[in-house]
Amino acid sequence: MIRIYTDGSCLGNPGAGGWAAVIVDEQNHREELFGGEEHTTNNRMELTAAIRALEKISSGASVELFTDSSYLKNAVMNGWLANWKANDWADALRRGILNLDLWRELDALLVTRDVKFNWVKGHAGNPLNERCDVLAHSTAEKFQRGEFKTPPTPPRRVFVPQETSKPVQLSLFAF
């Protein structure tokens, strides 16, 4: 089974942030991933760490993911994520979900992988959790000092349906 340890860090909340993941495969080979953003939140960094790590894992793989994030753990282990999805990405009070873009990304990855979530206490001596903390925090510091810059987000095409009172004719033929 593949093991993943993740952590996020933010200097100020919001502020400069970093995320990190350590992936340990079945042969005990280790891969470290990290990145960050100039202006973000701790929760976004926690989610990003899990997403970037799971993206490296093949569909169908069995994974144990270790996080010290209550936000991430509770959403997955307490069924919040499943409920949000069932409620068309709204909470029980029909409010929008914070970090919806990341929750959707994570959900798509979880559907195609067998992931068991485990919560670990942060800063409690777990060597791989501590390594993630060092990587995430040092990356956040580099963003804060301006040594790293967040690459510009490519423009997205967003379709916004327009209400119209005119009938719309659809054709099966290309012109």
Explain what this protein looks like in three dimensions:
By secondary structure, the chain is α/β, with parallel strands linked by helices. It has a single domain (2-145), classed as 2-Layer Sandwich (Nucleotidyltransferase, domain 5), CATH 3.30.420. 34% of the residues lie in helices and 25% in strands. The protein has helices spanning 42-55, 70-77, 80-86, 100-111, 127-145, and strands spanning 2-12, 15-24, 30-40, 62-67, 114-119. A 5-stranded mixed sheet has the order 3-2-1-4-5. Strand 2 and strand 3 (30-40) form a beta hairpin. Helix 1 (42-55) packs parallel to helix 4 (100-111). The longest helix has 19 residues, at 127-145. The model is unreliable at 158-175 (pLDDT under 50).
Summarize the structure.
The protein has 175 residues and is α/β, with parallel strands linked by helices.
The proportion of residues in beta strands is 25-35%
Radius of gyration: 19 Å
The CATH class name reads Alpha Beta
Number of helices: 5
Count of distinct strands: 5
Task: State the assembly state of the protein chains.
Answer: single chain
Q: Low-confidence parts lasting 5 or more residues at pLDDT below 50?
A: 158-175
CA(first)-CA(last) distance = 53 Å
* Order of helical and strand elements: EEEHEHHHEH
Q: Kindly report the name of the CATH homologous superfamily.
A: Ribonuclease H-like superfamily/Ribonuclease H
Task: Please state the overall shape, judged from the principal axes of the Cα atoms.
Answer: globular
CATH topology: Nucleotidyltransferase, domain 5
Mean pLDDT: 88
Q: Identify the strand order in the major beta sheet.
A: 3-2-1-4-5
